[in-house]
Amino acid sequence: MNQHTTDWQPKIVAFLCNWCSYTGADLAGISRIHWSPAVNIVRVMCSGRLDPTFVVKAFSMGADGVIVSGCHPGDCHYQKGNYKALRRVHLLKRLLVDFGVEPERLRLVWVSASEGEAWARVANEMEAKVRALGPLKLALGRARQASPLRRRPTRQREGGLTRDPGPEDRPGEADLVHDPLPENRRGEARLARDTERHAS
Ligand code: FES
To answer: 8, 21, 28, 54 - which has most CB atoms within 10 Å?
Structure first.
């Protein structure tokens, strides 16, 4: 028996495009086709709307797997959104490996509005895959360090802040002050030594 099956239940977040995959999932529900309750749907207007930070945030907030699903190539209602999603997911998989996230935990798939059964199969397969991989053990500190969310200017982060960003808002400086990585700590120590030498 799988050692993870006793007390752990996988959490999977699925970003589905409104026009195809969400409607496909809806069709599966209307047709009473069973699909995994571990999958939680977030509707986006197009798979091309998927900001890579959505995926990073889903993992950092406890998801064990993420599905991105959109219209079949050539069927996107915004023409090329799904091609954008394809490129982003490809890059994201490479990035996630750096944080110890198996690339299989992120899946991109095309499901049309008439493919209720296909959606159910995708959801069930993803649950089985994530169960086999086990709970995600994410290097959270490092993920937060690298998260693009952390590097946004204060104006965006706080939603309409009126003052201009000051020196404390510049991402590079803020990162240096708070960065716990050993190589940066060494850099700070050297900086302090040099400052003392020049002052004396
Ligand atoms: S509208 Fe479905 S992928 Fe763009």
So the answer is: 21
